[in-house]
Amino acid sequence: MVTLQQIAFQAGCSLATVSRVLKGQGPVSGEMVRRVRRAAAELGYRSPPPAGAGARHRPVVGVLVPSVTNPVFAASLAGIQHRMQAAKHGVLIAQSNYDPALEAPSVAALLEQRPTGLILTLCNAETSGALSAALPPTILLNNRPVPRFPAAVTVDNHRAGYEITRHVLAHGHRLILFVSGHFASSDRARLRYQGYCAAMEEAGHQPLPAMEIPFLDGYEHLDLSGVVVGRRPTAIIASNDLLAVGVIAALRREGLAVPGDVSVAGFDGIAIGRLMSPSLTTMAMPDGDMGIAAAAMLLDIAQHASACRHLCLDHRLYSGETVRMLN
Fold first, then answer.
1. Beta bridge partners of 62
2. 1-46 placed in CATH 3.30.2350.10
3. Would you say residue 55 has pLDDT above 50?
4. pLDDT tier at 218 (50, 70, 90 boundaries)?
5. pLDDT given for residue 212 in this prediction
6. Which of 37, 59, 195, 301 could staple 305 via S-S, CB 3.0–4.6 A?
């Protein structure tokens, strides 16, 4: 059995430092964390199971997502689980319900199970209280990296917002409204809106203020009556595909056709958008591949002390049928 003393000798540090690194508690420099983890990996060290777990204990990773019912995060979770099953790891899942205040206690609950590492999708990685604690190897999924946690798997949401707005502009639309979940609940939505603003300004048009609604219960109760009368947009870009479906339903309740009266576009590329008629114009995201990549990166860092890196995967436009060309 590999001892902590052996790891300390290999890493060239004190026993107390090894203990802090392996427990994820207390101040330790990033360089020393990498040295200890590398020494532990080279010696074949495995953390002891929690009290009472016995020989049946299986290593696990903890995953935090905003919602397990959103197809985007379900696809990422499937990718994570697929990769972790191959590595004989279990997957523990927590959800924040798009509430920043729930992130820290959710992560604390995951840490009670002594996971090999964490994969976190946060409302805003720059302000999240979940990152203030001492954490095991951690990958940010869908969030840009932050100085303390430079390992991340993302897409360029700002660029995606810019490109889909350019697509709508190319169809002759000028009054384009951006409908989104609250930006405080999703830095992804905020970045997509900023991309929309950049494209509108580049084209010489004034961006409209975003219409923000709750992520969890705003979709089916969306009321666009005031928007239709007041702003009269010819196109609406929704911050995700589920919201785009809600926008289409709300427009139909107002007696408007899509895309005959108002064009609609979204983000994510979920299956329901391709199956509906007319098919949804959207910016497709590689959610399943992102989950696989995050899981593989976490295992590399936790087991082989690999360097942290930021992996940005490609998005692609699915033109669909819900954006029409204006005369």
1. 92, 118
2. no
3. no
4. low
5. 93
6. 37
Q: Mind spelling out the 3-state secondary structure of the chain?
A: CCCHHHHHHHHCCCHHHHHHHHHCCCCCCHHHHHHHHHHHHHHCCCCCCCCCCHHHCCCEEEEEECCCCCHHHHHHHHHHHHHHHHCCCEEEEEECCCCHHHHHHHHHHHHCCCCCCEEECCCCCCCCHHHCCCCCCEEEECCCCECCECCEEEECHHHHHHHHHHHHHHCCCCCEEEEEECHHHCHHHHHHHHHHHHHHHHCCCCCCCCEEECCCCCCCCCCCHHHHHHCCCCEEEECCHHHHHHHHHHHHHCCCCCCCCCEEEEEECCHHHHHCCCCCEEEECCHHHHHHHHHHHHHHHHHHCCCCCEEEECCEEECCCCCCCCC
Q: Give mean pLDDT, residues 150-164.
A: 97
What are the structural domain ranges in the chain?
Answer: 1-46, 157-285
Give yes or no for residue 229 having a pLDDT over 80.
no
CA 32 to chain centre: 29
Q: Token pair for residue 268?
A: 């994510």
The topology (CATH level 3) of 157-285 is Rossmann fold (3.40.50)
- Both tokens of 153, joined, read 């798997």
